[in-house]
Amino acid sequence: MLFKYKSVDDKGVNKEGEIDAPNRDVAISALQRRGLVIITIEEEGEKKSFLKISFFERVKPKDVVILSRQIATLFEAQVSALKAFTMLSVNTENKLLGSKLVKVCEDLQSGISISGSLARHPDVFSDFYINMVKVGEETGKLNQVFAHLADYLDRQYSITSKTRNALIYPAFVVITFFVVMTLMFAVVIPKLSSILLDSGQAIPVFTRIVIWISDLFVHYGFFVLIFLVLLGVWLWRLSVTEKGKIYLDTLKLSVPAIGNLYKKLYLSRITDNLNTMLSSGVPIVRSIDISAETVGSRVYKGILTEVADGVKSGLSLSAAFEKHSEHIPAITIQMIQVGEETGSLGNILKTLTDFYRREVDDAVDTLVGLIEPVMIVVLGLGVGILLVSVLMPIYNMAGSIS
Q1: DSSP 37
Q2: Coil, strand or helix: which one is 140?
Q3: Quick one: CA dihedral 14, 18, 19, 23, positive or negative?
Q4: What is the domain count for the chain?
Q5: Apex CA 275: angle with CA 290 and CA 114, to 5°?
Q6: What residues make up the domain containing 293?
């Protein structure tokens, strides 16, 4: 196979050309033995699919976790930034991430800092990530910073994925129930209702309600579908506005069981963010501002913005949080106050992070354990009422005939 490559030699001179090798790995090894740092390498005639990269592939949080650990390992081995990112751009399995890293290599080669290069890809690297890397550049501890980032992202990914996966099964069952009920009302009930109406017998109230809903699906189903589509569009447009986001985030926090889970999830993120950044040397006000952008809730973003303003005006962190006791538990405020008084705020935040992470795990387990029996009871009642409403008149009709 013939491969085209672009590379940089040990003197920083750009070199490009072609190499014949059995596969890509052999080609890369041969070029590296020549002392070249590979920027790009692709098979002759190989075309990258725009659709594949842009629409069917995305950079997952897990990919960024793995990337961060690899960077930390390479930096600990004293590998230069350009060579490290070049190696990772070639060997990463995610093609979209690989294309991003190729651009990062080009930026590094032109003299841009690592944080500046990564900042050009905000869809992959968050503001929190960029600021942490910037601190690592300023303190000369990039390997430690990337290791902290990998640990932090791994914790957040674990919490988020567990919460999401816990809700997949209930959502699937509920959606399946509504699909089956829709088919019942649109296809099965009309055939049975015609038999009941032709019999001339008195029809119970529940059965009349079921027949009315069935007629609504049959005769006005198209209009119901249009209404649901318009409702979905309206909700989507509401969710992209600032007021709509605040309203939906407030609604999430007000739901009895779900709201408590989200509250603990956001508190875990806040304490983890602050602990990671403060331990890496980021100033406290900047740490709060970045946490506000990455917490994932407009409600808590507003709280953190006000907390940052309070700290700027001379308040302690605990005193600034105390003004928002409806969303920040008293135990959290008290522990932060103890950390400030004893000079061990970082350890206290780490303790709070571990505490809320366990609370999230327990809340998810409790929620799943609560949802399943409630769901079974509700679905059973729905199906039971439907069957009784339809089958009881048929049974009475058969009894009167006999």
Answers
A1: E
A2: coil
A3: positive
A4: 2
A5: 55
A6: 159-402
Residue with tokens 């005193």: 319
Ranges of the chain whose pLDDT falls below 70: 1, 22-23, 26, 44-57, 199-200, 397-402
**Which residues in 274-284 are b (16+ Cβ under 10 Å) and which e?**
bbbbbbbebee
Q: What DSSP string describes 220-235?
A: HHHHHHHHHHHHHHHH
Q: Does residue 315 lie within any of the structural domains?
A: yes
The residue count for the chain: 402
SS3 (DSSP) at 16: strand
Q: What is the DSSP code string of 64-110?
A: HHHHHHHHHHHHHTT--HHHHHHHHHHH-S-HHHHHHHHHHHHHHHT
Fill in the amino acid letter for 389: S
- Asked whether the beta carbons of 70 and 88 are under 8 A apart, the reply is yes
DSSP 56: S
CA distances from 259 to 163, 248, 264, 305 (A): 13, 12, 9, 21
- Non-local (6+) Cβ contacts of 196 within 8 A are 203, 207, 211, 390, 393, 394, 397
According to DSSP, residue 36 is labeled: P
The CA-based diameter of the chain, rounded to the nearest angstrom, is 101
Alpha-carbon gap, residue 100 to 241, rounded angstroms: 30
pLDDT digits (tens, 9 = 90+) for 245-264: 888 888 888 887 788 888 98
pLDDT of residue 186: 82
DSSP 8-state symbol, 93: S
Q: Which residues contact 322 (CB under 8 A, 6 or more apart)?
A: 328, 333
- Asked if residue 321 is part of any domain, the answer here is yes
Q: What is the CATH number of the domain that holds 378?
A: 1.20.81.30
* Whether the predicted model's global pTM rises above the 0.90 cut: no
